[in-house]
Amino acid sequence: MIVADRKPIEEIIEYIKDRDKVLIVGCNECVTVCEAGGKKEVGVLASALRMYFMNQGKEIKIDEVTLERQCDHEYLEEIRDSVDQYQAIVSLACGVGVQFMSEKYFKTQVYPGVNTCFMGVTEERGVWSERCQGCGQCILATTGGICPVSRCAKRLLNGPCGGSSKGMCEIGGEVPCAWQIIIDKLTALGRLDDYEKLAPLKDWSKERAGGPRKVVREDVRQ
Amino acid sequence: MRLRYPDTIRIVRLPCTGKVDVGYILRAFEKGADGVYVVGCMEGDCRYNRGNLRAKKRVAEARRILNIVGIGGERVQMFNLSSAEGPKFAQIALDMTEKIKAMGPNPVKLKKMKKAA
After folding, report:
1. Chain A neighbors of B69, CB-CB under 8 A
2. What is the DSSP code (8-state) at residue A188?
3. Which residue of chain B comes nearest to A49, CA vs CA?
4. A43 and B107 in contact by Cβ < 8 A?
5. What pLDDT was estimated at residue A59?
6. Which of B20, B26, B57 to probe by mutation at the A interface, max A CB count within 10 Å?
7. 77-96 of A, contacting B, C-beta below 8 A
8. What residues contact A174, with CB distance under 8 A and at least 6 apart?
9. Residue at B11 is within a domain
């Protein structure tokens, strides 16, 4: 899923302080799972903002709604009839949802309500960590299903650097060395010979370095 | 044991304090409550293992938010006691009422009342 983290309430207050009517829009997908932008978080943020502005003597109407997704037209369309009555929207979706909303409702200011962090997993409740950087050319088949692009600080493709110590990366913060995990996994699979094979040069143009990307599937396109 | 405690307190019954949500606490203040306290079982004695420990964290989060919005986080508190401690329950009700009275009314409620007047 796409992992996001909550923005400080103070930052959101600063965005909307001069508005009269604001809609806070949550998303039922990834940001609900990582407890940053689902229905509950929308309720908490809306309640906090209403109390803050009431306490400041400012009259700001703050409404709330949570959509199934904000990265698809059909769900964003659900608020089309009501969007014009708001001066601003605070979207608690990931950056994808914020942008799609902003593109679709071009005359409405859309503010981000979360900081979008990465594509990752729930290690345990309250702990999420990165697993994929969407490099566009997956090499997991040769690395035992462990990704050195997203999990090695240097994105090394042919074994660890000298900074790997006792299975941990030298950058600190208890980051495991991706290559240590890869070697452990290949050993468990009995495929350590794969480790000896040199990885070919990676085509980084398929990653973000090649500019904004797009997938077009003519077989399913309408 | 017909103990008395202040009649200003409204009890919201939940199956476990693990059901307490930050949103519930905030809504109470938004609707005009002057203070909220959560009474859970003793730590380590939760029937659902971690319900009261979850509530403890949520109460702390509600306090953080209430401090930001200017209501004051100290208006929320959590207590842990067993169901056999009736006198303690009544005493907590009394202490909490006194504490909130000393702090004065919820400022948001006052602003709402002023606006309505």
Report:
1. 9, 48-49, 51-52, 55
2. H
3. B69
4. no
5. 86
6. B26
7. none
8. A168
9. no
In a domain, residue B79? The reply is yes
CATH 3.30.2110.10 fits A2-118, yes or no: no
Query: Which of A128, A67, A93, A46 minimizes the C-alpha distance to B22?
Result: A46
Mean of pLDDT values over A153-163? 95
Whole-number Å distance between alpha carbons of A65 and A215: 30
The token pair at A51 is 């109390």
Of all residues in chain A, the one with the smallest CA distance to B107 is A55
Output helix, strand, coil percentages for chain A, rounded to the nearest 5: 35, 20, 45
Distances (CA, A) of A133 to A71, A142, A173, A217, A220: 19, 17, 20, 21, 25
State pTM to two decimals.
Answer: 0.94
| Portions of chain A given CATH number 3.40.50.2300 | 2-118
Instruction: Report how many domains make up chain B.
Output: 1
Residue A172, sorted as left (phi over 0), alpha (psi -120 to 50) or beta, turns out to be: left
Confidence of residue B53 (pLDDT cuts 50, 70, 90): very high
Tell whether B78 is within 8 A of chain A (Cβ). no
| Within-domain flag for B34 | yes
pLDDT surpasses 80 at A202: yes
For residue B104, the enclosing domain spans: 17-116
Query: How many angstroms separate the CA of residue B88 from the nearest CA in chain A?
Result: 32
pLDDT tens, B71-85? 999 999 999 999 899
